[in-house]
Amino acid sequence: MGARAVLVDDHPVAREGLKAILAAAGVEVVGEAADGRAAFRLIREALPEVAVVDVALPGLSGIELCRRIRRRLPRVRVVLISMFDDGAWRAEAAAAGAAAYLLKGDPPERIVDAVARAARGEQLLSPEEGRQRLPLTPREREVVQLIAEGKKLSEIAQLLSRSPATVRAHKASAMRKLAVHSTAELVRAALDLGLVRVPEVPSG
Which domains are delineated in the chain? Predict the structure, then answer.
């Protein structure tokens, strides 16, 4: 195939599996990352044809990473991989500009085909695909993700270059949309919907 790819997944085993599948098909994996922000820096430096990105990432979600790549590095195509098989996630992926949306249980040949077609500039996702959208805005999901990681609102404001008042407003809006009344309930609801992911703590 001859394409160059970057793999983004916070599970090393998942990255190794994808790497083996793509390498067997002639795809050169030029970098790997475990979180969205590190991934964007890597992709900006490596400029692969394709970024294969897990939807649920710590720090910056796969959907948000896809938006950032498509906005700032338009020649890089994004293939999103997810555990969630529903119209809402596909609609979000399409709106973010992903070339393809795959499931982690898809057969290797389907993954290889999607990466190959994305590398050729093909768009496997229709912009109109799906009607239901996820309940939180991209900024609200980013704030809730950082809350789930244990960040204080003041820290989140610094990370996102926003005022504390704006961050509090995003949190309040997310709580209202998810019909919850505490920070713990907010994080649990977002986790249950697959909107955020808490990074795994290495054992030992």
Answer: 4-119 (3.40.50.2300), 138-192 (1.10.10.10)
